[in-house]
Design brief:
Blueprint (H helix, E strand, L loop, with lengths): L1 E2 L4 E2 L8 E7 L4 H17 L3 E6 L14 E7 L2 H8 L5 H10 L3 E5 L1
Antiparallel strand pairs: 1-2, 3-5, 3-6, 4-5
Helix pairs in contact: 1-3
Length: about 110
């Protein structure tokens, strides 16, 4: 089945980039330092790209309980993001991040 004047099959899907917003208020700097040493390889394993990161965030509208290190990650798909977060081989690395502070990761898309 063709769609409109583009003559592309409807079943062919364009790659959908999704992003994750990480907010990590640091309460354990030693765990965060250990995480940072291993994070690059863990992200690279799943093709994750760091769009931006900052040690400080500033809320410009509304309110948040707490902010800390802010990171925007880019994934090729929702499946890639879920593959990264659920990767059993990365359990130790994710544990270091989780021990570093009371953070949250929100998938956008």
């Amino acid at each position: 089945m063709k769609h409109g004047s583009q003559n592309r099959p409807l079943h062919r899907r364009k790659r959908i980039t999704v992003y994750a917003y990480v907010n990590l208020p640091i309460t354990n700097p030693d765990s965060f330092a250990a995480y940072r040493e291993k994070a690059g390889a863990a992200l690279a394993k799943h093709g994750v790209r760091v769009v931006t990161s900052s040690p400080q965030q500033r809320v410009i509208e509304g309110s948040r309980d707490e902010t800390g290190v802010g990171v925007i990650l880019e994934f090729d798909s929702t499946e890639a993001a879920l593959g990264w977060i659920n990767d059993e081989e990365l359990k130790e690395v994710h544990g270091l991040r989780q021990a570093a502070g009371n953070g949250a990761i929100t998938l956008l898309g």
